[in-house]
Design goal:
The chain is an alpha/beta fold. The protein has 36 helices and 23 strands. The N and C termini lie far apart (75 Å).
């Protein structure tokens, strides 16, 4: 076995570039082999030495991949040793091509070292033993065995002999002999779908890998209170499940397998075998587990339905496509979409299609599989977007008068959720990034203070839910575990709704998983059962008391632990499956991990009935099912690639000598203030950063940055965000989503390729060259105009307005130190035209009223794009800061505002009526509040 050397300075992106770097190393070896084959006598030895060095660099990683495998690698070494330059080049060419095209997964000839394998690859000759039947998905199995490495080839051959023609999948094995190599292989090879672990494996590797050992010591040793005395095989299974929970793990033991199987800590193992028995059963178990993940109950049934000769007498003319393909005028629609789309359409729930509103068949099973994949207790499919998912959860769990702590900069669906439910939003403010006209995330201190203030006011019992966006639109990721843990220390039954519209993919990254709602909930479940945690909590009680005193300043300063006996873990997550997985637009999921779900199940279903369409799109349901299948089987590899591509973009843009003069992609140090990065982490590509330090920041820091969200500053190139976005789309066929005053947001996902990255970099180079040429031709006047424009965009930026307050008419107690308000009353108050007025933004009346009164009170949501958050909500008192911000905005799209009509305001007369004529005394305020709530 070769020895790999991975130093502590291994860059973060080198972890994620394993697959692409493999291709690059093989191409480098191919080029070296070609140089050797074409060498003259004087360069023969030099070029041969280069081939040897290139192969040595490559071999340190190849032990963890089934192809090309030890046989071909040995043959390659023999050809080099024999001085066969031509044969070496030919074999490297064949291997490199097979790796790049993945043909080795189906073409058995790729595994042979014949003299002309490239002909088989090109299709000129039939490959020996080539598979000609239906496509069989290929995967690899990691076998961790204490046997001598010399016996591994024979063991692999024995498993190959078990293959049957009726097998739906085909796999190859990779052998390692110890704990550390098993962990490293699991991290590096995304093709592993199963792991077979023998008893008796050793712990340490012969490889020099201090970064891996640091990672293991920090993250896996005695994780979550696991028993350190457990056999190394069981500890390995637990460790691998932490890294990749989707893996099927099998244990082969020569001990008392009945006791091993009965161990409560062995739940991570799919099946235990007595290792000298039933190799066929192991083979069949591996295939059966893959089939379980591969099965898509709804999509499979939809395909069968489409092939049946159905007579349709329901209200959907496009079903079966006859109205389209027989049309004289819209036949092109059928040609564009194809026949299957229409064969698979129906408005019926019979024939194996099931009902999304009341699933009892394949949709129910598909949702159960999704729950397993995402680590949830329940999953609900939604076909009209996460806007609807959010409103479903909020309507189900919130009632009039409940207090809902929510990030003011969250998606508008949450604000409307408050209107629909009648809950009182208590807005918590995110930290500002004024230079870029955007907000970050809400500091934990801000959230804790809001809860402590509610407790001081005697209103903590009404604090029902905390709503946060994770990750934010711009990529800030919360420390979800810590947020929930400290909030539960103050309010043990607080419900959490994490809007992970942009972060659904994170489940399949071991870096990100713990910062997802479901990942953090699982960690807390385990933590609350840990005796060590209980002991730490009891120490906290000695210091702070059992009933936390809201007057104690230590509550804000200390890290609080929750009472494990009183805590109720109630976590909901919504994700826009279509935003980060292979799902059609509007495909969304609601994930539930709520120990009290049985108490709200009926109202949750009622919320589903309220918001879900009775005519859901069957194709969206099917792709939700398919997205789960893909992520369970290849999500780890795909997400790693998306992260790697994002790191590539960051590195290329910020290091390019021309592009970096005008553009910059913001790093963690730009997007997250240092006070929230106490580990000292600067950025993923900062010299000295490695993937162990990246894991540290993701475990410990208050906020981290999702590298796939790339904020590209374009103001330094004299473009505002909207202008630059439109230019990229119109002139270069590049689409993107969000803009700010001086930046645009790029996003990599599982759909992107290296070609996409190359196109983007080429375009930025072209734009940068154009700027240089324009400045050179225009002389001083052009340079001055350019500098003025850059200053306007990058320095003369408006201050971001915070939420002011709700008008006293919409507050239960105007004297309260907490700022929740009845936005529902204000929202519907604006439905009556006689209760509203308009005032133009340029009117001098605005400043007069700001100075002298009566107060300006917004009648609706006002949301400028960018930045995309509401700067006014119904019932909010408008301040001079908000007016100044609006006047400095140079955006064309402001939802809820008409420049012709002006600001829509609630009339003072209505506010007095809404106030009920009551004075500002607390008792009367409460009575008025109760009247308007009713």
């Amino acid at each position: 076995m070769s020895t790999a050397t991975t130093t502590p300075s291994t860059r973060v992106d080198q972890f994620f570039t394993v697959a692409e770097a493999r291709f690059d190393r093989w191409r480098a070896l191919l080029q070296a082999a070609r140089n050797w084959a074409a060498a003259t006598q004087s360069t023969l030895e030099t070029t041969r030495t280069a081939v040897v060095a290139s192969l040595q660099e490559l071999r340190q990683w190849e032990d963890f991949f089934a192809y090309p495998g030890p046989t071909l690698i040995t043959t390659l070494g023999e050809r080099i040793a024999a001085g066969d330059a031509t044969g070496t080049a030919r074999l490297v060419q064949a291997i490199s091509a097979a790796l790049l095209t993945h043909s080795y997964r189906e073409n058995l000839a790729d595994w042979e070292s014949d003299d002309e394998p490239s002909l088989a690859l090109a299709g000129h000759l039939p490959a020996t033993g080539e598979v000609t039947g239906p496509h069989k998905p290929y995967f690899e199995v990691l076998v961790v065995s204490p046997a001598r490495p010399s016996s591994w080839t024979g063991l692999a051959q024995e498993l190959r002999k078990l293959r049957r023609t009726q097998d739906k999948f085909v796999y190859e094995t990779v052998f390692v002999g110890n704990f550390e190599d098993a962990v490293l292989g699991t991290i590096l090879n995304g093709s592993f779908e199963a792991v077979v672990i023998y008893d008796g494996i050793s712990a340490t590797s012969a490889r020099n890998n201090p970064v891996l050992r640091q990672f293991l010591a920090t993250n896996l040793a005695s994780s979550n209170g696991k028993d350190n005395s457990a056999p190394s095989s069981l500890k390995l299974a637990q460790a691998l499940k932490q890294i990749r929970p989707e893996l099927d793990i099998y244990l082969l033991s020569d001990r008392e397998v009945e006791k091993v199987a009965g161990d409560v800590d062995a739940s991570c193992i799919r099946r235990v075998f007595y290792q000298v028995e039933e190799p066929l059963e192991l083979h069949l178990s591996i295939l059966d587990a893959i089939a379980d993940r591969y099965e898509t109950p709804y999509f499979d049934n939809l395909q069968k339905y489409a092939q049946r000769p159905m007579g349709t007498f329901h209200a959907l003319p496009v079903a079966r496509g006859k109205s389209i393909f027989k049309s004289n005028w819209i036949r092109d629609m059928g040609e564009f979409y194809g026949m299957n789309l229409f064969l698979a359409e129906s408005s019926a729930t019979t024939g194996g299609l099931d009902s999304l509103l009341e699933p009892t068949g394949n949709i129910k099973v598909a949702q159960e599989k999704a729950a397993r994949a995402f680590g949830a207790d329940q999953v609900f499919f939604v076909t009209n977007g996460t806007s609807t998912s959010n409103k479903m959860v909020e309507q189900a769990l919130l009632a009039p008068g409940d207090i809902m702590l929510v990030d003011r900069n969250c998606h508008k669906s949450h604000h409307y959720g408050a209107v629909l439910s009648g809950a009182l939003p208590l807005y918590v403010e995110a930290y500002p990034l004024t230079q870029y006209s955007m907000y970050g995330a809400v500091p934990l201190r801000t959230i804790k203070k809001a809860l402590i203030d509610l407790k001081a006011e005697g209103k903590l019992d009404r604090a029902r839910m905390l709503v946060l966006t994770n990750c934010t639109f711009d990529g800030q990721i919360y420390n979800v575990e810590r947020v929930m843990e400290e909030c539960l220390a103050i309010k043990p039954d607080l419900i959490f709704l994490w809007d992970e519209a942009w972060f659904g993919f994170a489940r399949w990254s071991p870096f990100y998983r713990r910062r997802t709602a479901m990942g953090a909930a699982a960690a807390l479940e385990s933590k609350f059962k840990d005796p060590a945690y209980r002991a730490a909590y009891e120490e906290q009680v000695k210091k702070l008391g059992a009933d936390l005193d809201p007057k104690n300043p230590a509550l804000l300063e200390d890290r609080l632990l929750a009472n494990p006996d009183k805590v109720h873990l109630r976590v909901y997550q919504t994700n826009s499956t279509h935003k980060s997985m292979s799902c059609l637009r509007q495909g969304s999921m609601v994930l539930v991990k709520d120990q009290d779900y049985h108490t709200v199940e009926e109202q949750f279903h009622e919320a589903v009935f309220t918001h879900a369409s009775t005519s859901p799109n069957l194709q969206i349901i099917a792709t939700l099912d398919i997205a789960r299948r893909q992520m369970e089987l290849e999500g780890y590899e795909l997400v790693n690639r998306a992260i790697q591509l994002a790191l590539d973009i960051r590195r290329e843009v910020n290091s390019h000598p021309l592009v970096s003069k005008y553009f910059k992609i913001l790093g963690a140090d730009d997007m997250i203030p240092a006070e929230f990065r106490l580990t000292g982490f600067v950025d993923y590509l900062t010299p000295g950063a490695n993937w162990a330090t990246a894991v540290k920041t993701l475990r410990e820091d208050e906020f981290a940055l999702d590298v796939t969200r790339l904020t590209l500053v374009c103001g330094s190139a004299a473009f505002d965000g909207t202008q630059f976005k439109n230019m990229l789309a119109a002139d270069f066929d590049i689409q993107l989503n969000k803009t700010s005053r001086n930046s645009v947001l790029l996003q990599t996902n599982i759909n992107n390729t290296r070609s996409d990255i190359a196109h983007l970099i080429k375009v930025l180079v072209e734009i940068s060259k154009g700027i240089e040429q324009k400045l050179a031709r225009g002389g001083n006047p052009a340079r001055q105009a350019f500098a003025a424009r850059v200053k306007s965009l990058m320095e003369d930026v408006p201050n971001l307005p915070n939420f002011s307050s709700f008008h006293n008419s919409f507050r239960e107690d105007p004297a309260s130190i907490t700022s929740e308000g009845n936005m529902r009353s204000a929202f519907f108050g604006a439905y009556r035209e006689e209760q509203c007025d308009h005032l133009k933004l340029s009117s001098p009346e605005i400043y007069k009223r700001l100075k002298e009164g009566p107060e300006l009170v917004s009648a609706n949501f006002v949301i400028p794009y960018p930045p995309g958050f509401p700067i006014m909500v119904p019932g909010q008192v408008i301040t001079v800061e908000t007016i100044e911000f609006m006047r400095k905005l140079d955006v064309k799209e402001i939802h809820g505002f008409s420049a012709t009509l002006g600001l829509k305001l609630l009339k003072p007369a209505f506010l007095n009526v809404a106030k009920g004529g009551a004075d500002k005394s607390v008792p009367e305020g409460k009575k008025a509040f109760k009247r308007q709530a009713a």
